[in-house]
Amino acid sequence: MSLRKENKLIMILNNSLLDLASPSSLSYFWNFGSLLGVFLMVQIASGLFLSFHFSGDVNLSFDSVIHMMRDVNYGWMLRVIHANGASMFFLLMYIHIGRGLYYGSYRFDKVWLSGVSILLLSMATAFLGYVLPWGQMSFWAATVITNLLSAVPYVGVMLVEWMWGGFAVGNPTLTRFFAFHFLLPFVILFFVILHLFFLHEKGSSNPLGLSSVYDKIFFHPYYSIKDIFGFAFFFVFFLFICFLFPYIFMDVENFISSNPLVTPVHIQPEWYFLFAYTILRSISSKIGGVIALVMSVVILYFLPFFLKHRFRSTLFYYFMKFMYWVFVVNWMLLTWIGACVVEYPYMGLGMMFSFLYFMMFMVFWMIYGIQDFMIL
């Protein structure tokens, strides 16, 4: 008997990576989970090395970033990999979630709920990291977003002051954000382990959405080869971005040191938050906008409880295929509008697409119910 089946520790790794029973019909859309795990490790490693040279002080943070870029050996590469790695991580995560929506992966409730928790924690971590360089956009993004907590009844102002560590965004704010930005990736790592535990307990979904208990194959070599190919392809794309277009996802305002007396012409978050930002600014009521902003992501938690259609995959729901791609296009339009100035016609379009974003979940529930009834 080989060592990988005798040693208990190696046996656990073997059963999780090599001899893992997997459905026989998985496509390349199932590569993105493993890619996310690799990029999480890249973010943790690059962030750890960047923290060696970063100063969490409002008088030093901007200069410490410049010092990394100019004076530290390969500091520019670490910073570019970390900044663009966040964008790649969210790109992969949105594709991963989109695949889950299309193939009904939310029917595995524990796997789905832990995955949505990872998304929320990743958003919080990315926002905290965006503030750390303490450029113009960092400072004003921190001011605008933290002020949203004031919409919470009774305790809102107290929460904002606690978040700031005072009565305005300042040094205590930056110190707290740096501490939480360093710690949260390890919380995400814990949830990733939990996510994998539930995944191996329930098993993967598949393109047909059918039970594959009687038709499974070993993960290695059938899917490990696919994963290696996916890693190679995506890392070539990632390095192409890092070395040829390193600042394509960065805002020009953030290359200017923060100035509380000068407000940027157009305050906007990173691209992966723009869909939620559009929803926030489409509602005139502050508390209504905050609730809509939170619900734009939290609504994913409710899918396992409301979408209980007979077949997991949309393969057997023909009209749902069309509606799914309408939803994807609507999400892209929300992202585009979030980067546009707050004026006509973008405000009107943002309100319309925000309404459609939430209505689409109701439409999914209705269409699945109607088509299940027709199948019966």
TrEMBL record:
Cofactor(s) it depends on: heme b; heme
CDD domains cross-referenced by the UniProt entry: Cytochrome_b_N (cd00284)
Subcellular location: Mitochondrion inner membrane
UniProt-listed InterPro entries: Cyt_b/b6_C, Cyt_b/b6_C_sf, Cyt_b/b6_N, Cytb/b6-like_sf, Cytochrome_b, Cytochrome_b_N_euk/bac, Di-haem_cyt_TM
Domain Cytochrome b/b6 N-terminal region profile intervals: 1-208
Molecular function terms, GO-annotated: metal ion binding; oxidoreductase activity; quinol-cytochrome-c reductase activity
Example of a GO cellular component annotation carried by this entry: mitochondrial inner membrane
Binding residue positions for heme b b566: 96, 195
Membrane topology: Multi-pass membrane protein
Annotated Cytochrome b/b6 C-terminal region profile domain residues: 209-376
Binding site for heme b b562: 82, 181
UniProt name for this protein: Cytochrome b
Lineage, top ranks: Eukaryota, Metazoa, Ecdysozoa, Arthropoda, Chelicerata
